[in-house]
Structure formats: structure tokens, C-alpha cells
């Protein structure tokens, strides 16, 4: 009997790390039209998707996996007598967590002795991936089920994500802000500084200019970090490698940071709602958490 770690594609954990830690991901879906539906990270090249978003007037839609998608992922493990820890995209953003929970309930009667723990990560992208990676590391270290669950939940308590977008039009098109806010941002070159805290997106303010917005991300993160040397950083971006590198340089300057900073490409789920050019700093201040 083993402990299996399951997540969803919105965690944006790179393929090599998924294989290294034997993590199973259940894909979310992106719909480019009524006839075009793709599984995230499986059916559609991410750079093709970035280009499509830049040039299309149609806003794609996303949808969560169904409970059946999760039962298909869980059942081979349960048949083998394994237990499952399933960690997912914030329930404030998606119904993915709920689908996983429904799948758990559906399988209870058939596998009454199995342990399935479904956890709301309260974050998107690699910040969602942090508790997943912690859980996987604990499994590799031979920890017990309850220890793995507790460690992953502890990571969530110490994780933050602060981000900015290149254009407000995707937030506006998705109905997240009013047309007036989009117009003002475009004319005055204001860029919003946003944070994911307590499972939801909140505004930290706005600044004028792209580079200033990236610097502001680091300034805001410094208000939340006491021990930079015990902090893990990743920079997630949607077709914005140059800006991601600039953000990295300022993180190193601000904190005197010499450890690896991981670069993560944002998948279709998050990019759909924030647009190409999104850059996010995801960090976790926890001495025992060292995923890279």
C-alpha cells in the first residue's frame, strides 16, 4: 500500500517534476469555441495558446474536471489498496476542489477502507503546487498519511502569490472589473498589483508603468517575508520571460537571495483569466520546504 499524490493541471508544476515525484494531475479544460475543447497541458501547445489570445477577439472559457474525471484518476490507486491525498486549485476560483470531493464521496461505498484526503490549496499556479510538492516529498521520505496531510496544510499557511497583468482587457472581458476601470488603466498606463490571499484575489494598489509594477510586487512581498533565506520563490509568467527575468533580478537585489528561483509557464486556465504578459511571484517562507 502506498500514498498517492493527485493534483490538477492548474498547479502548473513542470512535467519533469511531476515525473520525479510521481504526481498525478487531472486536467482542466479550455474552450476556444463551442467546437474546440482542449485538456490543459495535454492537447494544446501553450505558446500557440498565448498567440491565439493575443490575436483573438473571442475570450476562451475554462471548465473544471468532472467528478467522473477524478474517479477515473483515483480508482486505479484504490484498486491497488493505495491511499490518496488530492490537492487542488482554490475553491474561490474553480469548482475543481468540489469535483474532487464529490468523487471521493462517490467512491466511499466501494472502497470503505481507503483514505482519501481532498485539500483546497487556496491558490492557483505553482503556489497551488507548493503543498503538492511538499506532500510528494514527505511521501518519498516515508512519512505517514496524517503527517503528509499536515505538512501540506502547513505550507499553505505560509504561501503567498502577488502578481500583475500586462493588460486589463482580459480581466475586463471576463467581467472581473468594470469597463471604466479598464479604460482608465489603458489611458494612464496604470498596472494593478494583485494578491491571492485567503483563497481569493484582492487588490494591493496600482502603479504607473510595467517595470514599476514588477518592482512593486517585490516591495509588497518584502512586507510578508521575515527570513528570505528560508523562503522559496517561483516566478510564474504567461509569455513574459523578459519581465520574469527582471523580477528575478529585483528579488535577488531586495533580499540578497542566492538560491534557485524557479521559472514557471502559466497554463491555459490562469492565462485565460489574466492574459498573456501576466507575471506572478509565488513564495513560501518555511525552513523545511525545499522543493528545488
- Which percent range describes the beta-strand content? 15-25%
What sequence of helices (H) and strands (E) makes up the elements?
EHEEEHEHEHEHHEHHEEHEHEHE
DSSP helix fraction: 40-55%
Fill in the CATH topology of the largest domain.
Answer: Hypothetical Protein Tm841, Chain: A,domain 3
**Unreliable segments (pLDDT under 50, ≥5 consecutive)?**
none
CATH architecture of the largest domain: 2-Layer Sandwich
Task: Give the count of structural domains.
Answer: 2
Shape verdict: globular
- Terminal Cα span: 28 Å
CATH class of the largest domain: Alpha Beta
| Main sheet: strands, sense, barrel | 6 strands, mixed
Describe this structure in words.
The chain is of the alpha/beta class and 292 residues long. It has 2 domains: 120 residues, Rossmann fold (3-Layer(aba) Sandwich), CATH 3.40.50; 127 residues, Hypothetical Protein Tm841, Chain: A,domain 3 (2-Layer Sandwich). Helices cover 41% and strands 24% of the residues. It is built from 11 helices and 13 strands. A 6-stranded mixed β-sheet has the order 10-9-8-13-11-12, with helices on both faces. A 4-stranded parallel β-sheet has the order 2-1-6-7, with helices on both faces. α3 packs across α4 and α5 packs antiparallel against α6. The longest helix has 16 residues. The model has no long low-confidence stretch (mean pLDDT 94).
